[in-house]
Amino acid sequence: MKLLAYIICYIIYPFSFLFPRSKRKYAFGSYRGTFADNAKYLFLYAVEHGDPDYKYIWLSTNRTTIKKVRSYGLRAYWVLEPRGVWHALTSKYWIFNSYTSDIMFCLSGGATCINLWHGVGLKRIEFNTVAGPLANRFSKKDKYDVFCHPESFRRPDWLLSSTHFQTYSLARAFRIPESKCIEMGYPRNSILTAPDQERSRFIGRYEPEQTASLIEKTKDYDKVLIYMPTWRDSQRNIFTQGMDLDKLNGILASKNQLLILKPHSNVILDDNIHSFSNILLASPRMDIYPVLPYAHVLITDYSSILYDWLLMENKDVILYLYDYKDYINERDFYYPFDENVTGCRVETFEELCSVIETGKYTIDSAERTRMIEKFWGKTAGFDSSKMILGFIKDLRK
Question: Are 388 and 320 in a shared domain?
Fold first, then answer.
């Protein structure tokens, strides 16, 4: 059935070039049918601040997502229903987080595709990948893998970046000229740096009850830590492989601290993870960005979340690198790791427990500034969504 679906997709794709596309219509989508990441925040900004004569439409393969977005009074369609197919075929601008498959690859012919991507960072991605399972697709060109992922080979017309430091590697990863990278920062970071009143308004208007409940729960603790590990190609049961949660919960309870475990959407969770008094497991599909300003310490590893987190002042970082040697065999870095991260580095669970107990993980302010300048530059102060919409408006001329 999967093979048949791809064959049908390849048959449909050429016909999608025949439809006239309206420059007054923008189609948005996100990976796995979710309502998340840069596309979500740009979409909501466009709805509130964009030209009222233009249509901003969310398309998804997930009916639950469509129901949620419609509950906000916004245009949203299941991409496989007749109206969804029509809007996909007649929208001039496709705006997404990863690939045209965020909407529907076979309907993308003739659209101007704007890839917002989903993270600045150090890891080799796409056609820069030289190790691990993804190399079968991008470097080794495994025929079956290539056949089943045509969206990976559809070059974006424009790709969002942050600084030339990032543009250099992103352009090569997506096989496009550097001139096709627009350095305007990330829309999702607006919620991190927004004034408290504006953030509260946004959460009340566009976030589910579980997000508000989690934020309210954080107020019961003296300090909130959040563990956000990156995706491993092997999809390991990361929270039980690298941690003794029972022991860690005891340490947190003694200090009246809360640890939020936020898995990557691709991670396979261990069924043995259960509820703890001071450890909370967030849903993989939850948009964690509205919650981040209410946390104090980020625990991460090789994830690009580090660079978004640094945009917020008075926040600390613990780099938990228990599998560093294994990880670099799966996914190599484009730049030297040690020179491009900041935070308290620990390599064993015992070291992690020690720094949590002592609280000795304060980030160096000069290093924080250096990282921001390197990965964000001037875009750290940009109103990213406003600038991107302005850029697309210029494309219409």
Answer: no
